[in-house]
Specification:
Length: 171
């Protein structure tokens, strides 16, 4: 049976993100290799990986090479750094599904690139990226948010079922 995973903000090829976010890599090539290795150790061929934006800073050929090397079926919610490229670009690069907007999964979990700032009276959970190693700084209930930027998940896709377990109430 296939599994579902989440990851955000890989920033393949982005040298400056290493300094900005204190990522533990000497250069972008080392970072790229580590993320690819972690991904492929974790994800199987038929698994689905929801990528919540900011995939690659490379040109189309290198981006396609990297995305094609990643196991699983890849679904992309475009991030701010992805928006300058068309949905066709991302599909050609190897994404099966591409959305410019947040999506609702399992009728309760909103997947988005940026945090959606759901109010505490809303019954939903927002799984997002974009803010990297930072924490939410709104008045909203922090347990309604899950940051899957690579800095929070050890540069490895995280199992959606493990996230869901945090919110399942035993009855």
């Amino acid at each position: 049976m296939s599994k579902r995973f989440l990851i955000s903000d890989m920033h393949f090829g982005h040298e400056h993100i290493i300094k900005y976010e204190s990522r533990p890599f000497a250069c972008a090539a080392d970072m790229d290799a580590a993320i690819i290795e972690n991904w492929n150790k974790t994800v199987k061929k038929d698994d689905i990986v929801f990528v919540l934006g900011d995939v690659s800073f490379y040109a189309k050929e290198k981006t396609t090479e990297i995305v094609s090397s990643l196991k699983g079926r890849k679904y992309l919610i475009l991030g701010n750094h992805d928006m300058s490229r068309s949905e066709t670009f991302w599909k050609d690069a190897g994404f099966e599904f591409v959305s410019r907007y947040p999506i609702c999964v399992d009728e309760f979990y909103w997947f988005s690139h940026e945090p959606m700032f759901i109010t505490t009276s809303m019954p939903y959970v927002n799984i997002y990226g974009h803010i990297h190693s930072k924490s939410m700084s709104t008045g909203a209930e922090p347990n309604q948010y899950v940051n899957v930027s690579v800095e929070h998940i050890n540069y490895t896709p995280v199992l959606f079922e493990d996230i869901k377990k945090r919110f399942v109430q035993e009855g």
